[in-house]
Amino acid sequence: MLDLGGVSRRYSGRAAVDGVSLSVGRGEFVGVIGRSGAGKSTLLRMVNRLVEPSAGHIRWDGTDVTALRGRALRDWRARCAMVFQQFNLSGRLDVLTNVLMGRLNRTPLHRALLGLWSEEDRAIALSALEQLDMGAFAAQRADRLSGGQQQRVAIARALVQEPEIILADEPVASLDPRNTRVVMDALAGINRRYGITILCNLHSLDLARGYCSRVVGLSAGRLVFDGAPAALTEAAARELYGLEAPETVGPAAMPAGGIPVPAHPAMSAVGFA
Ligand SMILES: Nc1ncnc2c1ncn2[C@@H]1O[C@H](COP(=O)(O)OP(=O)(O)OP(=O)(O)O)[C@@H](O)[C@H]1O
Predict the structure, then answer these.
(1) Does the predicted interface ipTM exceed a cut of 0.90?
(2) How far away, in angstroms, is 170 Cα from ligand 1 center?
């Protein structure tokens, strides 16, 4: 379980994230929503310590993530994979090698630098690509792929880390609607198949409603909504997004392929700041 207690991050005295407390159980698919600058990226990056919290605690199954150093921190980062908006692939390397980078924490550095990946690692990477319908592209340079394909490679790289949690920071913000569906379907599939917990920053309320089992909303760094997607009423959305609401909310949408969207029984709206 991921447990955040009173987590804050300040920049020059100004809070980007302000006293957020949140518990996320294993296997949840949590959408983090809020307008631009609300603190979504900062919150996610604190979980894997790309950003250091100014206050509060972050625990995973009781381990204090904020106290980890050295090897223990690297291990934690392997267990909580990041997926970024801009994919962060090495464009000149082939797709399979990009995915193998997700095995770095399990491979001696000198072997990785020489490209001496074990047969097992190669098999795992290929299998991850195949699960994301990208097996046929294994030998291609990553920069020859479309954005949606690149993001699926990035998700395969995250998957071969064998993570317990995936932090996806606006993974579809650069994609067209069709690729958005493909990538969100891929994340949902991983979540269901392996029970990997997913925290996913999203701009679109439709996507949060359609794919996530739970939605948390940030406004000016504070947690102002935590509930089932169905609890995200138009009034709640307006509170979160203000004037952006009509463009952002749109009609409720179901994902392609009929992904089931279970309600989160334990959660209810916690009100608005
Ligand atoms: N390194 C930094 N230095 C100073 N201020 C920062 C830094 N990173 C983030 N901020 C500020 O913290 C606030 C929250 O930023 P953050 O990127 O977390 O928001 P966000 O909700 O992810 O926004 P977006 O949806 O636009 O990515 C913003 O006001 C931002 O300007």
Answers:
(1) yes
(2) 13
